[in-house]
């Protein structure tokens, strides 16, 4: 029995597939498995640069105690095991990318585009985005939104744009230190501001930064920003509070590095019905208000919902049955067990 | 029971009673204390459970661990009194504890 109906791709950079899974956390990864059993091929997109989602980003070393059959497992171990489990299905991963747009095509399929320009045409979409996409934390400073993108930057896409500027870098981790070192040669001035005189960054970057402070190439301040000043979207200054009092710095650009937080992000703009930043689904197929778009794991809501990894695993199993109906219309989906079905075992590469 | 007073930025007070053994963050969440978000659920991974411990209690609550200090880098308006409430376990010793909720979590 061959269910391989992959269509030849037409546009050069457009990927045609059965399913696009948004989110490579444990639930997104297991979705690859359940879809794979019913011959639905999947591409997986995640904004992080690695698989595991919150498990890998927030608590890789924390033990989890409520995965059935695994009395104790860390987030990283669970991720690794899931990756191994889904290997037979050959999922294609797209890390460091965020799906920005989703549109339904006249033939009922969907066109998805990422912020990196990757384009997918897919028959079903599975949103397994957990708490949403990880986005840089915005310091709660009055009026900061107005400067974002022009003079307050959470990542540097083009270093050249900072040539000759007075730059204030805030934070004490690797990003803050790396940009201090990288931008120092081209910026007019660099001030590194951190709340304490200890850094969570690679020791050699810290050493290098301290050297630059010695030579006067970088100014290090211990304190916190309390206010921003400027006109329109142009930043002109920042008030910094140190233990000696407040000081106003002349600043053209501020780069705050306060880690990541989760935001629903572009999902909110795809015309799906939402309830308090969650996506309501039915409990039979875990389908959203839009046919062919499913939501599984922490991002969905339904009566009695529990945000547990194990609930997400159950959800993807049911979701896959319906997804298969869309991918192979008219074909009867035969329910089978991995313990006894020779066709499933073949797919898993164990027979 | 451990009695805790949460003081909001506007000065309003909320007194909650918690069982010893739970964390300060958990006691806040169970009693719907506003301003404690605890996005990561107590994994010391989000810094959105930031509180200021009243000076009179700082000795009893102790000082943050290295991991907590690192995570405090991601909190806003960090002061000497800053702690992450998910990292404070309530003991009978802390009966009467007073903490302030910051104006904003990140
Ligand atoms: S709840 Fe996340 S750090 Fe305390």
Topology of helices and strands:
The complex is a heterodimer of chains A (351) and B (106).
Chain A: E1 14-22, H1 26-37, E2 42-46, H2 53-57, E3 63-64, E4 73-74, H3 75-86, E5 92-95, E6 99-104, E7 110-114, E8 119-127, E9 133-136, E10 166-170, H4 174-183, E11 189-194, H5 203-214, E12 219-231, E13 234-242, E14 245-250, E15 253-256, E16 260-263, E17 279-280, E18 293-295, E19 300-301, H6 309-327, H7 342-348
Parallel strand pairs in A: 1-2, 1-8, 2-5, 8-18, 10-11, 10-15, 11-12, 17-19
Antiparallel strand pairs in A: 3-4, 6-7, 7-8, 9-16, 12-13, 13-14
Helix pairs in contact in A: 1-3, 1-6, 4-5
Chain B: E1 2-7, E2 13-18, H1 24-30, E3 50-53, H2 58-61, H3 66-72, E4 82-84, E5 97-100
Parallel strand pairs in B: 1-5
Antiparallel strand pairs in B: 1-2, 3-4, 3-5
The CATH architecture of chain B can be named as: Roll
As an assembly, this protein is heterodimer
Give the count of helical stretches of chain A.
7
Q: Main interface pair?
A: A-B, 21 and 18 residues
List how many beta strands of chain A DSSP finds. Answer: 19
Helical content of chain B stands at 10-25%
Task: Write down how many β-strands of chain B occur, each being a DSSP E stretch of 2 or more residues.
Answer: 5
Query: What is the overall shape of chain B?
Result: globular
CATH class of chain B: Alpha Beta
Rg of chain B over CA atoms, rounded to whole Å, is: 12 Å
Kindly, what is the distance between the CA atoms of the first and last residues of chain B, rounded to a whole number of angstroms?
31 Å
Rg calc of chain A? 24 Å
Overall shape of chain A: elongated
Q: Secondary-structure element order of chain B, as H and E?
A: EEHEHHEE
Beta-strand content bin of chain B: 15-25%
The CATH topology label of the largest domain in chain A is: FAD/NAD(P)-binding domain
CATH superfamily of chain B: Beta-grasp domain
Helix content of chain A: 10-25%
Helix tally of chain B? 3
